[in-house]
Fold this sequence. Notes:
The protein is of the alpha+beta class and 388 residues long. The chain has ten helices and 19 strands. The model is unreliable at 83-105 and 145-153 (pLDDT under 50).
Amino acid sequence: MMIELKVPTLGESVTEATVGTWFKKAGEKVAVDEMICELETDKVTIEVPSTVSGVVSKIIVKEGETVGLDAILALLEEGAGSGEKNGTSNIKTVEKNTPEKIKDHKNAPSAEKIMKEKNIDPSSLKGTGRDGRIMKEDVMSLPSNKDLQVGDMSSPRSEEKVKMTRLRQTIARRLKESQNTAAMLTTYNEADMTAILKIRSELKDQFFSKHGVKLGFMSFFVKACCKALEEVPEVNAQIDGDHIIYKHYVNMGVAVGTDNGLVVPVLKNANNMGFSDIEKEINKMGLLARDGKLSIADMTGGTFTLSNGGIYGSLMSSPILNSPESGILGMHKIQERPMVIDGKIEIRPMMYLALSYDHRIVDGKGAVTFLVRVKENLEDPRRLLIDL
Length: 388
């Protein structure tokens, strides 16, 4: 019986994918749930398993080609060549009960294929996937001897040419689209972080003891932004044709830099979350991002974004909008600077804040008001507790 292997559900707002690697060739046997190919989407890499035990009859879509939803990737002949003689009937049992078999499939099949082709020792790589699992991107990030110029390797003229990953291509495309579409403008302010630093110093041990997670800066910023968005809802809205969609909730995107590129996991309904819930969710999303395990659902539906360049030492920058959102707040390095307080010069821990916004929907007054409210909430966190 011939079975069609189709593109699986890719997730909200994802309508196409690129065939990255085929793990099987036409005529090869395949077991149920055995990985046949790998698809690269705008956000994640998806491994496609076989739905039957049999033989790969025909591969329809070649590596590098783009496919849409429900497209047919290959034809599988169910039952052909199956049985105990060829060992496929026992594959699932072996995988469950034999540690060596599990170990063989620890890394992503696409990564295993490239390492084998290029004779790369897996022990020389640091995997970014779950439990150190080596992913395709980990292998692709290595300099290739074939791509380097022949001659003196110490020469500054040495070069390498590496194909951009699907994720990197998408980042480049979406950021440029955002610049070309939105009337993007940035307004700046600064916040005195004295009060937040004091609260963290005094309550960090009690907070960790009760909630099992550290009290970081991000929860203060998430709460401060949620509160400001109540007053200036257009920063939390988006344009849809000649309409404006106002969101009566806040799905807060938190930009995270990984070895494979920038990803933005989303805290759903952040406006209803407490400090401990926010810290737990950010910690969870950060681990998923590091291990390459974020799902498409984890990265869709955002209404406003936070970007913390300060963790890399950035003192000032202008963040680019995460389209179709209308606002993104850039956080920066906390640096002690002389400030005039009540007529006296004092040394205070200051942070520059940058709000980039879509001027098509957000006026200058609204943008400045939003940023001032964020500043006030950060400098006096009590405002968040008594609804000011």
